[in-house]
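HUMAN: Mind sharing a backbone?

ASSISTANT:
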Amino acid sequence: MNNSSHDHGHVNHDHDHDHGIKRVVRPLETKEVSLRQWLDDTKRVVNPLECLHIFTQIAKIVNLAHSQGYVVHNIRPSCFIMSSFNNVSFIESASSSDSGSDSYQDVTSSQTSGNVFNKVSEHVRSEFDVGQTEEQKHVFPMKQILKMETNWYTSPEEAAGGQSCCASDVYRLGVLLFELYYPCSSPEEKNAAMSNLRHRIFPPQLHFKWPREVFLLLRSLHPDPTSRPKIDEVLQSEFLNELKENLDERQVAIELEEKVVEQEMLLEFLLMMQKRKQEAAHYLQRDVSLLSSDVQEVSNLQASIRIKRGFEPSSSINISQNDEFSSSVYRKRNRTPEENQENAVTNSSRLMKNFKKLESAYFSTRNKSSIPIGKQMFSNRGMHPFLEGLSKYLSYSRLKVKADLKQGDLLNSTSLVYSLRFDRDGEFFATAGVNKKIKVFEYDSILNENQDIHFPIVEVPTRSMISSICWNPYIKSQIASCNFEGVVQVWDVTQNRLCVELREHERRAWSVDFATDPKLLASGSDDGSLKLWNINQRASLGTIKSRANVCCVQFPSESSNYIAFGSADHQVYYYDLRNLSTPLCTLIGHQKTVSHIKFIDSTTLVSSSTDNTLKLWDLSTITSQVIDSPLQSFTGHTNVKNFVGLSVSEGYIATGSETNEVYIYHKAFPMPALSYKFSTTDPITGNEVDDNEQFMSSLCWRNRSSTLVAANSKGNIKVLEMV
């Protein structure tokens, strides 16, 4: 259960703090800001209590340092931050960047004291990079301001090359006091006022409006360090002490407001956490209820099945000898006690290993249905989807080698198999690849373990390496192929002859597929086109152009009116052939080339990509031209550069891996059900060795069976069976 997907309300509190009493502080910001930013706010109006509150805090910091024998040096606005309640914190230093930028983001890289400055930098970036107009950004260009700030706050003795002393800090306090009481509306006004300040020349209005502050300024900015007041004298200044009572009241009010805000934040957090836990409890209760209901239903069903099985005569079981899938199911149900015990241990291990994924799949599937499992099991819809998937996922415990195809040219370095396909009845399978041959093998003869070498019953030589083959679903002897020269060919393998050759692709053709209409053929090419052919005509019936290489084409097994193809642009396109101008929909989700696609049924498609994933898509209810949410994403195999094959049968999905392994998934779950690693035998020692260069290149299920044939990049072909 994942509660993160549920929306949670946000608790808002709107409080009126006035309560009929006139406030002594102006509305406060809710974020920390640098003092430099606060001073240069063009909308700032001087509030004497606010200014004295800030000045007093900084003066006390300086006083503490001086009492311990330290000179502070960096008493500049860019070295201080202010909280929501105008409480000042010292961040040691700030320096401008050489990047040429004027934003706060570039001028706040400095030697700072820990996390305080990180918080300031984050705030300053958000303040100056978001939501401001270009005009606002350039009122006070920060790089230039900070460079000038260093000059403004340098005392005369330091400018002359002398040592910094406590009196130098007092000088800097005087400059800060001036900035607090004299806001400027433009950089030009600011620069002029600060230049005059060096000579203790103040704007006339400052004398009239703040005479006692000017008196302290004159003393603090005296060019002779010995004529400046000590820091404790500054703190005892007349105008500071006269307003001390008001400042104390202000401080008490601020502390109370801070406590109120803290309590509001705590209350908001507690309410939010309470709401989330209540939601979690609701969903947990619902999940437990579902589980309890399902446990009861399955227990009842199990008891019912046992009763029926006890009275079911064995003669009622009728298995067709030609239905290998049904035969395998019958064998599973009639395992020996030892086999059942071994299978139970294996399944228990797989259940625990994949418990979290199975749990997620259960609730995902179960929550989509409000029908109780027991009622659904006996409906026309069949077993509950999750239980059906779990049953098939656990039906088999391993892949067993049923036969190993030994070819005469096994040691040939050009034996890589690009394509491997069964005919419609599963009697024959064909292979093709870089050896420029189409080989047809009889399936039953391959199972004969007494043969040292398995020879094909038909071997068709071709002029070029073959990338894909496909049997005609109705004309049993017909195989279509496409090759590296872009040529599409149709062969009669019983007569070992070429029936038709189709030449319109301009580059290598990757994929070919027959439709249910035995005359209709499709091919995809590196030239970015999908072409439709009638095998009785030389010219193509139509062309669909893609933005990138077409790597795979596939008709649904029930219709000749639709087609899908995968592309190197990471997407799958699904078309109605009665309108080639626009796809019915585009499937978006892969991060790399789509190498293979297969229809599981008429409306369900699985795609394979070199992004290490397979994805399952639902085409049953196309409501938009873009589908970006697959039903399932399968991971576990490795596929980043090669085409490793893809085949589907009865809900099982087989794919290759670049680890020289075959992986079997079931469509219900994202993790592999089974895997088998091809071994490599050293031709000299006869021992099995790991060969990191080998990968699976092609595979194909035998129709309606638990058997598949797989080939790797060395041309090693095995018949594997799920047992």
